[in-house]
From TrEMBL:
Residues 1-26 form the signal peptide. This is Uncharacterized protein. It comes from Candidatus Gottesmanbacteria bacterium GW2011_GWA2_42_18. Keywords: Membrane, Signal, Transmembrane, Transmembrane helix. The chain crosses the membrane at residues 318-340, 361-390, 402-428, 435-461. The lineage of its organism: Bacteria, Candidatus Gottesmaniibacteriota.
C-alpha cells in the first residue's frame, strides 16, 4: 500500500513539472531520451519596452454624421431693433474631398439687416506630446530654465470653443435673403472650423396696441443639418421682457467692438479679449431656449413681448384683471342687497317703522363696512410683517429659522381666524346674524382687493429677477 501511494504521488508530480516548461528543476530531472542528442531550450530575454511619455488622446474630431452648432445672443432695443451675434461651428464633410471656402446662411425675409460683419475663428489645439527635457551636461550650478517645445498638437475643437483664438475678418455677399461668407482660411476636408456673424436688424419686433413690442426671433437657415441650437434673448437695461429680465446691455456694447476695433478692419488674423468676452456670453440671456436636430433649411422661432414699462408689458392682463374685479364687486353688491333685503324683511316682521328701519339699516351697513375695513387693514399689515419675517429668516440660522417658521404659521392661523370671524360674530350678535355675515364677507373682499393691488404694484414697480429662465 505504501509503495502504491509513492508511485501515484511520483506520477502526479511528474505531470505537474512537465506543465512548467520554464522550470529549471524540470529541465534537470527530465532529460532527453537516450539515442537523441541533448536538447537545450534557449529562451531569449523579453524585449524591454518603455512606457510612452503621454497618454493616448482620443480623436475629438466630429464624426461624419454630426451637424452644425449655432449659438445666438439677441439683444432687443427700445426702437424695435434686434442686435444679433451668432457663432457657428461646422465640419467640412464634402463627399468630393474639396476644401470649404464659403458658407451660406439664409436670413428671414421679413427683416432688414444692417452693419453686417463676419469673422472666421482660428484656434490651436492642446499639446499632445512635448519635447524631451535635456540634461545638464556639466552637472553643476543651477539648471537652466526649461521651456518644453510641443512636438504634436491635437485638432482644435471648435464645437466647444469659448475664446483664446484668433479672428480674421471675412468678406461676405448679401443678396435677397442669402448671406454668403467667404472664409479667409479654407477648412480642409474632414476638419472643423467656426465663424462669427454680427448684424442689426429691424423687423423682428412690432408694436402692439398697448405700446409693447411683440417679437418673433427666427434663426438663420443653413444648408446642413443643425445638431444643437441655443438662443439667448435679452433687452437693454431700461427694458422689461415677459418671463425674464433686461439687464444685459453690456453685450450690445461689446458686440459693437466687432465693427469698431481697428484690428478688425484689417485683413490679418488678430487676438482680441473683447471678442473672447463676447463669445463666452453667446447663448446666454434673460430667456434661453434650445433646439436640436434641425433639418437643412429649417429654422427655429422664439416669440415674446418686451416694453419699457410693466404697464405696457402687462396691459392685456391688467385690463382683464380690472374687468374681473368689477365683476366680483358687482356680484358682491348683489349679494349685499340680498342680505339687506333679508334683514329688512326681518325688521318689518317685528313691526318697526319703515323710516326708522331704513335709517338703522344704513347706519348698520356703514358700520359693517367700517369694521370689515379695519379688520382687513390689521390682517393685511400682519401679512406684510409676516413676509418681511420670512425674508429675514432666509439669512438666519437654519434650525432657529425652522422653529420660527413653524411658530409663525401657528400664530398666523390663530390671528387670521380671530381677525376674520370674531368682529363679524360680535357684530352679528349685537345687530343680527345677517349683519355679522355681511361683515365677514366684506372683510374677505377687502383682503382680495389688497391682494390684487399688491400684485399690480409688484408687476409695475416690483423687483427684477436676476436668474435667466430656461425652456
Amino acid at each position: 500500500m505504501r509503495k502504491l501511494f509513492l508511485a501515484v504521488s511520483a506520477f502526479i508530480l511528474s505531470l505537474v513539472l512537465l506543465n512548467i516548461p520554464s522550470s529549471g528543476f524540470a529541465q534537470e530531472i527530465f532529460l532527453a531520451p537516450s539515442g537523441y542528442p541533448d536538447v537545450v531550450e534557449q529562451t531569449e530575454p523579453a524585449q524591454l519596452k518603455i512606457a510612452p511619455e503621454y497618454y493616448p488622446v482620443p480623436d475629438r474630431r466630429p464624426p461624419h454624421f454630426s451637424g452644425e452648432n449655432h449659438d445666438y445672443s439677441v439683444v432687443l432695443r427700445g426702437n424695435g431693433e434686434a442686435v444679433v451675434t451668432l457663432k457657428v461651428a461646422l465640419s467640412n464633410l464634402n463627399p468630393d474631398g474639396s476644401e470649404l471656402t464659403a458658407v451660406s446662411l439664409r436670413l428671414p425675409s421679413r427683416i432688414l439687416p444692417s452693419d453686417i460683419a463676419a469673422y472666421q475663428i482660428t484656434a490651436q489645439g492642446y499639446c499632445m506630446r512635448y519635447a524631451q527635457r535635456p540634461l545638464n551636461p556639466e552637472g553643476i550650478g543651477m539648471p537652466l530654465k526649461y521651456n518644453p517645445g510641443c512636438l504634436e498638437y491635437s485638432e482644435p475643437d471648435y464645437f466647444d470653443y469659448y475664446g483664446g483664438g484668433k479672428y480674421q475678418r471675412a468678406k461676405y455677399n448679401y443678396s435677397l435673403d442669402t448671406l454668403e461668407i467667404f472664409l479667409p482660411k479654407p477648412i480642409q476636408n474632414e476638419k472643423s472650423g467656426a465663424f462669427l456673424v454680427y448684424f442689426r436688424a429691424l423687423g423682428f419686433a412690432r408694436k402692439n396696441f398697448f405700446g409693447a413690442y411683440k417679437f418673433t426671433i427666427e434663426s438663420l437657415k443653413a444648408a446642413n443639418a443643425i445638431n444643437n441650437l441655443n438662443i439667448g434673448i435679452s433687452t437693454d437695461a431700461d427694458m422689461f421682457i415677459k418671463g425674464g429680465q433686461g439687464e444685459v446691455g453690456y453685450r450690445y456694447a461689446n458686440s459693437e467692438m466687432l465693427m469698431k476695433s481697428p484690428q478688425a478692419k484689417g485683413g490679418g488674423a488678430f487676438a482680441s479679449s473683447a471678442i473672447d468676452n463676447v463669445i463666452s456670453q453667446i447663448g446666454q440671456g434673460a430667456i434661453v431656449k434650445n433646439a436640436a436636430n434641425l433639418a437643412p433649411l429649417e429654422s427655429y422661432k422664439v416669440s415674446g413681448i418686451y416694453a419699457n414699462s410693466r404697464f405696457k408689458l402687462y396691459g392685456k392682463e391688467i385690463i382683464v384683471s380690472v374687468f374681473g374685479i368689477l365683476l366680483v364687486l358687482a356680484l358682491i353688491t348683489l349679494l349685499a342687497r340680498k342680505i339687506l333685503k333679508y334683514v329688512r324683511g326681518s325688521a318689518l316682521k317685528k313691526e318697526i317703522k319703515s323710516d326708522q328701519t331704513q335709517e338703522d339699516n344704513s347706519i348698520r351697513a356703514v358700520m359693517a363696512a367700517g369694521i370689515s375695513f379695519i379688520s382687513s387693514l390689521i390682517l393685511g399689515g400682519y401679512g406684510i410683517l409676516l413676509i418681511l419675517l420670512f425674508n429675514y429668516l432666509n439669512y438666519a440660522d437654519y434650525q432657529i429659522a425652522m422653529l420660527l417658521r413653524v411658530a409663525a404659521m401657528i400664530i398666523s392661523f390663530c390671528v387670521y381666524i380671530v381677525g376674520l370671524f370674531i368682529p363679524g360674530l360680535y357684530y352679528g350678535y349685537k345687530k343680527g346674524m345677517g349683519w355679522g355675515v355681511l361683515t365677514v364677507v366684506l372683510t374677505v373682499v377687502w383682503l382680495i382687493i389688497y391682494f390684487i393691488l399688491g400684485l399690480a404694484v409688484f408687476f409695475l414697480f416690483g423687483f427684477k429677477f436676476s436668474n435667466p429662465v430656461y425652456y
